[in-house]
From TrEMBL, chain A:
A GO cellular component entry from the record: plasma membrane
GO biological process: glycine betaine transport; transmembrane transport
Transmembrane parts of this sequence: 21-41, 48-73, 79-96, 143-167, 179-200
Family from the record: Belongs to the binding-protein-dependent transport system permease family.
Record bears the keyword Plastid: no
Coiled-coil residue windows: none
Protein name from the UniProt record: Osmoprotectant transport system permease protein
ABC transmembrane type-1 domain ranges (all copies): 15-197
PANTHER family in the cross-refs: GLYCINE BETAINE/L-PROLINE TRANSPORT SYSTEM PERMEASE PROTEIN PROW (PTHR30177), OSMOPROTECTANT IMPORT PERMEASE PROTEIN OSMW (PTHR30177:SF4)
Cellular localization per UniProt: Cell membrane; Membrane
Topology term for the membrane: Multi-pass membrane protein
Keywords, sorted A to Z: Membrane, Transmembrane, Transmembrane helix, Transport
Lineage, top ranks: Bacteria, Bacillati, Actinomycetota, Actinomycetes, Micrococcales
From TrEMBL, chain B:
Main localization (coarse): membrane
Keyword Transmembrane: yes
Family, as annotated: Belongs to the binding-protein-dependent transport system permease family.
Entry keyword Transmembrane: yes
Membrane topology: Multi-pass membrane protein
Record field: transmembrane: 34-55, 62-89, 95-114, 159-182, 188-211
Domain ABC transmembrane type-1: start-end pairs: 29-208
Region described as Disordered: spans on this chain: 224-248
GO (cellular component) term, any one: plasma membrane
GO BP field: glycine betaine transport; transmembrane transport
Name of this protein: Osmoprotectant transport system permease protein
InterPro entries linked: ABC_transp_perm/SBD (IPR051204), MetI-like (IPR000515), MetI-like_sf (IPR035906)
Domain of life according to the entry: Bacteria
């Protein structure tokens, strides 16, 4: 406990850097996944191909990916950019599937009605399909946030700042308090960001409170896959 | 790209596979697979019965969901470091960490498998006089098997990835090459280790996805082929639509 009080400055600094590293991959992976997920959902063949690629990508362990990426894209090993790109790729691996599933869940009758009353394909996507896919998209994004926050710590092995340093430093110097503080802070950041997403979802999708939840089947898919 | 050719040269050099090498690749690979197998078996023995119990009784599902959500937030590196300090360096700390981290996936696979079974199927099984035990073993387990294998697949991947960190607390496995490489500023060795682990993980993923397809019960597969018709599910307007015999 004393150790934590004496080093609260370092921990606070690591926490802030951790946040800075966690948020960009989540936003980037969401933005990039929407078009890819749309393509995946659009054609039968593209669904099979894109979802298989995403699945295999998600299978790649994080530390080896962090070591292979610099050779491919020319970043330096200890660069935060390297970490952000790797985490964006992981986020996309999860989000592309969620987006495809979310769009597939939109009722075909609703889609046809929108076309019937004169929506263009573009309008129909943004005003009908995307909002209706919202709850499943949100469920996917929540998984991405939590796993990203936890994966940022792997950067510690390569000397990238963030709460991962609390683990490497704590192990080297045998300070249990430092490791425990690091774990607790990571979990707290993950839960806080997750909670913020839930609130954001309520603000953006007010109709959800009055109507039924998104189909359980779709949500279960999201949970089972991750 | 030069690094890649060097890394492949490292992987293909017979001297790096010979038992006289300091880190024979074959030995480290077998270690890695061995840790993965031990951890997966322990995880399965703990998580599957609990998952089945939750799935069958429907009790404790909220707790299981919260647990698997919370466990995803746990940083692997932190858990391994903490256990290494608490239990001491050696094989036990990484194995315990691997099991803790893989339990949620397998647990989720086990109970969502039961959850996904149509309630009417279970009611029907009860109605024809099956005992609860028969319902579990002959209806729920076979029907939930694909999702259970999915959970085991997620757990196994998690374990293979995390077993890399076993080398971080000094216990071998393929992570050895990565940590030796990082420590000695020998990027080629670290890259070679990374490539091996990535290939291993992808092979495992493919094997498990094939297995997942194989365990779908024959009855489910036959039924699905018939019912899985894309397109409108409503009955067509009567006008101009010929009466189709046998449909609906």
């Amino acid at each position: 406990m004393n150790w934590i009080l004496e080093n609260s400055g370092t921990l606070l600094d690591e926490t802030l850097v951790h946040l800075e590293l966690s948020i960009p991959p989540v936003i980037l992976s969401f933005i990039l996944s929407v078009p890819i997920g749309w393509v995946a959902n659009r054609f039968r063949w593209s669904r099979a191909v894109l979802l298989t690629v995403a699945g295999l990508f998600y299978a790649i362990p994080s530390l080896p990916l962090l070591l292979v990426l610099p050779t491919l894209i020319g970043t330096s090993l200890a660069s935060p950019v390297n970490l952000v790109i790797a985490l964006t790729l992981y986020g996309m691996a999860l989000m592309v599937r969620s987006t495809a599933d979310a769009l597939a869940e939109v009722d075909a009758d609703v889609r046809q009605s929108a076309t019937a009353v004169g929506f263009s394909a573009w309008q129909r996507f943004w005003q009908v399909e995307f909002p209706l896919a919202g709850p499943v998209l949100l469920a996917g994004l929540r998984v991405v946030v939590v796993s990203t926050v936890s994966l940022v710590t792997i950067g510690g092995v390569l000397g990238i700042n963030g709460l991962g340093l609390a683990f490497t430093d704590g192990l080297q110097r045998s300070i249990i308090a430092e490791i425990v503080a690091g774990i607790v802070l990571v979990v707290v950041i993950a839960l806080v960001l997750d909670g913020l997403l839930v609130l954001l979802g309520r603000a953006l999708m007010p109709w959800q409170r009055s109507t039924r939840e998104p189909s359980k089947r779709a949500l279960r898919k999201v949970v089972a896959v991750s | 790209m030069n690094f890649f050719s060097q890394a492949f040269a490292f992987l293909l050099a017979p001297s790096n596979w010979a038992s006289t090498a300091i880190n024979p690749i074959g030995t480290r690979l077998v270690e890695h697979l061995w840790y993965t197998l031990i951890a997966l078996v322990i995880t399965a023995v703990i998580a599957i019965p609990i998952g089945f119990a939750i799935g069958h009784s429907g009790r404790g599902r909220g707790l299981a969901v919260a647990l698997s959500g919370g466990a995803r937030a746990l940083p692997t590196l932190g858990v391994i470091s903490l256990l290494a300090l608490l239990i001491g360096l050696g094989l036990r700390a990484p194995i315990v960490a691997l099991v803790i981290l893989a339990i949620p996936s397998v647990l989720a696979g086990a109970y969502t498998g039961f959850d996904a079974v149509d309630r009417r199927t279970i009611d029907a099984a009860r109605a024809v006089g099956m005992t609860e035990w028969q319902i579990v073993t002959q209806v729920e387990i076979p029907l939930g098997l694909p999702l259970l294998i999915g959970g085991l697949r997620a757990g196994a991947l998690q374990i293979v990835a995390t077993a890399t960190l076993a080398a971080y607390v000094g216990e071998g496995g393929l992570g050895t090459f990565i940590f030796l490489g990082i420590g000695n500023n020998d990027f080629v060795t670290a890259l070679a280790g990374s490539i091996l682990i990535i290939v291993l993980a992808i092979v495992l993923e493919i094997l498990f996805s094939l297995l997942q397809r194989l365990v779908v019960p024959a009855g489910v597969r036959a039924g699905r082929a018939k019912n899985d018709r894309p397109g409108a599910t409503r009955t067509r307007a009567a006008v101009g639509s010929p009466l189709q015999e046998g449909s609906k």
